[in-house]
Amino acid sequence: MERFYYVAAVTVVLLVLLHHLLMRRRKRHQRLPPGPRFAFPILGHLPLLKKPLQSSLADLAARHGPIVHLRLGARSAFVIGSASLAKECFSGELDVAIANRPHFPSVREASFDYSVLTLANYGAHWRTMRRVATVHLLSAHRVNVMSDSVIARELRAMVRRLARASAAAPGGVARVELKRRLFELSHSVLMEIMAQTRNTYSDDADEDMSKEAREMKGIIDAIVSLAGVANVWDYMPLLRWLDVYGVKRKLTDAVNRRNVFVYKMIDAEREKLKQLERKNGEGDANHSDDKLSMIGVMLSLQKTEPDVYTDTFINALVANLLGVATETTTTTLEWTMALLLNHTDVLKKAQEEIDSNVGEGRLLDKNDLPHLPYLHCIINETLRLYPAAPLLLPHEASTDCKIHGYDVPAGSMVLVNAYAIHRDPTIWEDPEEFRPERFEHGKAEGKFMMPFGMGRRKCPGENLAMRIMGLDLGMERLTWQQALAR
Ligand code: HEM
User: Fold this and answer.
1) Of 33, 45, 411, 465, whose CB is crowded by the most CB atoms within 10 A?
2) Which domains does the chain have, with CATH numbers?
């Protein structure tokens, strides 16, 4: 028996040595891009990275060039920092080769085992989800239909709530917490689009969030902050196994709460669909998609292909879209408002544009947007300076490939620093300055920006996001008036 243990131990040591030697030999033959020389044992270059990550990576690019190689724990990462390399990455075969997503254990539970649209690997399942999202839920036609009904209705309701709060406040000036209100706005618009479930508000004029928005915000905040803490797990599995701070338990609890919330929305929509069918005649599934919410559309697809459009599929897509869409639009709106309040000349010009095109007597609607080019320039300039996903979403190479002649082994992470690319002084004059005029009269035509990404995994929500943000900013006149009066 003793002899067996001895042989087994020697075999394991030999195998580890062999693996190590083979990997070293393989690495020696690889042509990797430059990167910091010193790497810590186990952690690699992780301790060199500071927050905000995009600025830290931009500093590394300034030292090492437009493509930098890093070792993040056991992972190899390639950071892209120039427009020409970003274009190379997202065209032709390379776009396919890097279309996977890295799977971090900290988000496994919240992402239905990485099956949500943002994290699914490139393949049949991703294609089905992506088709549902782009063709049935977020197409230009649906965004148009939604702008007329749910988006405009929710925005008007918000303006009325704000006016009520102002009237009730001393001196007619209400104090609002902008971040909360913008979150509530994006969130309630999206909830309406998903389920057409009217949100419930209390009669309290100070109440800036519906009951549902507050509940979902609590859940999203919990998941985001817990996943943030759990992030160290991704590089130190021992912490994950020991679950030292009970993060795993709390995360499971938050994810369960989210699932109950979304399943409740699905059940309510299913009931509504049944009532609609009863009204139109038994078994009639012939209603126009335009009248249905996103969940309604997926439930009618479920009727023809129940094995594909399962309740879990619908839950995963709804939870994912709600999370991504609310976070990104809220962040961008918040930056826009902050930039406007700090640049009153821009604010005044935007207000004049709206006053002369829309007038004082009514709230603007989607037909006004094409006549408000300066408002559009403001949104573009905000997205240039503060893209909501400054490193896009991380990509992963599914096969060995080459970027700019360098070897990128399968399994490597590819990060594209859109934040740095948008501030490249060879493309943008005075890139750090907030100057919406740079987009006026087609002046920025041909200049490269990628706030929504590029290629196969480009954001499918761009149309909807631009519409929500345009309409919301246009309706923020009340807030602007108060800011300019001060
Ligand atoms: C200002 C608003 C938004 C910005 C700046 C933004 C930006 C982005 C970026 C940079 C990506 C990653 C692209 C890549 O991996 O290369 C992305 C992916 C995605 N976005 Fe958005 N987004 C916004 C709003 C929305 C909205 C409103 C929705 C849906 C309602 C949405 C749904 C998604 C989804 C599902 C993906 C993953 C696509 C995939 O992996 O195939 N986004 N977005």
Assistant:
1) 465
2) 129-485 (1.10.630.10)
